[in-house]
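Help wanted!
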Amino acid sequence: MVINLYPWLKDLYKKIILSNIFKRKNFGLIINYNTDLGVDNLVFNIIKWLFCNYKFNFKFCNKCLNCNLLNNNSHPNYFCFKNNKDISLDSVKNINNIFFNNLYISKYKIIYFSNFNFNNKFINNFLLKIIEDCFYNVIIIFSCLNYIKIPNTILSRCYKYIIYSPNENYILNWILNNNKYIKINFSNLKILSSIRISNFSPILSVFLLENLWLLRKFFINNINIIFNKDINKYINLFNNNYLLEYYINWFLYILLDILKFKNINNVYYNIDCINIIKKLSNLLSINKIFLIIDEIFIFLNDFKNYLNLNRNIFYYKFIYNIFYIINF
Ligand SMILES: [Zn+2]
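Answered by r_m:
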């Protein structure tokens, strides 16, 4: 049986496991997605199918030793890097020492790099060595947002699959059919807004509706604060906490909608708050909007890439620059 597989992943699941790639010994497998589609879920199902002692067609038994060890997260032939932060030269070398000394109880050894976004020459060379070494029977799986960042030397030894988000009506129906709370409490217009400002990720839009919708409402209802000459008010609006990236994301989609409004393009992201967008479009020039969007991208880039620096530096720089662009 195939458990817990999101419906939009089923076709790709079948395509991958029914392909011939697993007849090879050593190779890499890249699954590239354009937004959060729950690809970990897909990879885990593929690994279960590969390891299962009693698989049949595209199904696995979920009962045998291999299935059980995977379910308990204790399979000696499978290792997962869930987070890029966990990847270091030491941790990868450690895999080489421990993981490869384990006995084979399944046909392959598999290392999975979830949401791979790592650019370290030493680690990449190390991974390349593992893929190239015929002594092992190894598959390295990468899931990532942008496979182009993976070096060509690795890329050329990988099979690559690309998955795109389903269209918004598909996502809307999936949410309505699978989430009673949302179906009862939200209009279709709100659900569609949530899908569009979650970059068409079914998973992120459900998360937004279930957990953050009130915060978003508060943010948008108070967005006029950006025209206030008191910078402290900005700090209330873009609260510097673990949700900061959400606020900035919501702000970006509002700006994009204002641009759309100015160009009389009526396909908006925030379709549940067109009136607010209309009002803002009278107050913000196109020049200012582009300057702010530049600041947002600089901020997001700094925020992600300089993990060792105090993030408050980027936050205050961002707040000050936005304040200055809008009010002066
Ligand atoms: Zn099994």
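OP: Thanks! One thing I noticed: The chain has two domains: 7-163, 168-327.
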